[in-house]
Design goal:
Porin, 359 residues, signal, Porin_dom_sf, mainly beta
């Protein structure tokens, strides 16, 4: 049944006490988004940044920040309560297509209530592991499709070949359908709880997910951690946790993260991944920032030798205006024990240049 066998409104509301960390806004609806596109060259990497025996040159969307279009809003409904909602779609700027052909609002689709006690939201939402990565990732969640904290630690691309939790996909579990999430603040601390319904007629636990998380923010310091358990349709379990800390040193910020998850892939086999990340952001001039991070991923699978990879990613960002920046990105990946696939190069390097506009 997971760590919360019957996590519902009674359990969640019973934990409510203080304010929410969901962003405050005026009553009404806000249209927002990110439009990001760039040219990328990869050596030993294909157009999707997987291992390759050749090179690739592509025009990609969302190299710096995932391109998206969203709608969010709130309404004061009296008694200290506000109704809130968020609908958000991923966009491939290079083709004009939606990032997910099966879900109109693949990135967010939820509605809820917010008060002094916190916020309770229902719908498709990011997992608590994803929330931690958003708070403490050394790259600030840049380059989501290539960032090991997002792909491996937060399970956006878990490489497990099966659906764990109601993700609506077999390739990752960064967001879950049918989810209830509570977020509350207690001074400098925050508390999160989440449960996603599997909606399987034969079992309440199959394809479900439950988790808890906590955070701290004060001055130039922050920390966050979360644990989540996922089930597949056969009742096999994926258990994961992520934690990290960040600190300001003058105008620079340093972050360190660690994540681990273990999945039952069959009744007798399992896969475990461990992810370490360290890096941060330092301003070089008033308009120019350097953002860099190092990641190490180690994988253990039943009946296979340990493998994984080391990856360095760096961005040089120039702020053209308050909402527009140009960037150059460089990266290098060193695969271990054939993680990249048979016949492919043992190292991969990439370079990108693009522009991002937010609205």
């Amino acid at each position: 049944m997971g760590i919360f066998p019957r996590l519902g409104l009674t359990v969640i509301v019973g934990a409510l006490a203080a304010g929410s960390d969901i962003a405050q806004a005026q009553d009404g609806v806000t249209i927002y988004g990110v439009v990001d596109a760039g040219i990328r060259y990869g050596q030993g990497l294909d157009s999707a940044n997987n291992g390759s025996a050749a090179s690739s040159t592509t025009l990609n969307s969302g190299i710096n920040t995932t391109s998206r279009l969203g709608f969010r809003g709130r309404e004061d409904i009296g008694g200290g309560l506000k109704a809130i909602f968020n609908l958000e779609s991923g966009i491939n700027v290079d083709t004009g297509a939606m990032a997910n052909s099966t879900k109109q609002f693949d990135r967010a689709s939820w509605v809820g209530l917010q008060g002094e006690w916190g916020a309770l939201t229902l719908g498709r939402q990011t997992t608590l592991l994803a929330d931690v990565v958003s708070a403490v990732d050394p790259l600030g969640s840049r380059y989501a499709g290539f960032n090991p904290n997002i792909g491996t630690a937060a399970l956006s691309a878990h490489r497990l070949s099966g659906e764990y939790g109601p993700a609506g996909a077999t390739t990752g579990a960064y967001r879950l359908d049918n989810a209830l999430k509570y977020v509350g603040r207690y001074g400098d601390f925050s508390l999160r709880a989440m449960h996603a319904l599997g909606e399987q007629s034969a079992s309440e636990s199959k394809l479900s997910s439950s988790g808890v998380g906590a955070g701290f923010q004060s001055g130039g310091y922050n920390a966050a951690a979360a644990y989540t358990e996922f089930k597949n349709v056969n009742g096999l379990t994926l258990k994961g946790y992520v934690g990290g800390v960040g600190a300001m040193f003058g105008k620079a910020k340093l972050s360190i993260t660690y994540g681990s998850h273990e999945a039952q892939t069959t009744a007798t086999a399992s896969t475990r991944n461990k992810t370490l990340g360290i890096g941060g952001t330092t301003p070089l001039t008033g308009n120019l920032d350097l953002v860099a991070a190092y990641y190490r991923v180690e994988r253990n699978r039943s009946g296979s030798p340990e493998d994984g990879f080391d990856r360095l990613i760096a961005f040089l960002e120039y702020k053209i205006s308050r909402r527009t920046l140009a960037y150059i990105e460089l990266d290098h990946t060193r695969w271990k024990n054939g993680y990249q696939g048979a016949g492919f190069k043992a190292n991969g390097s990439g370079a990108s240049a693009g522009i991002k506009h937010v609205f």
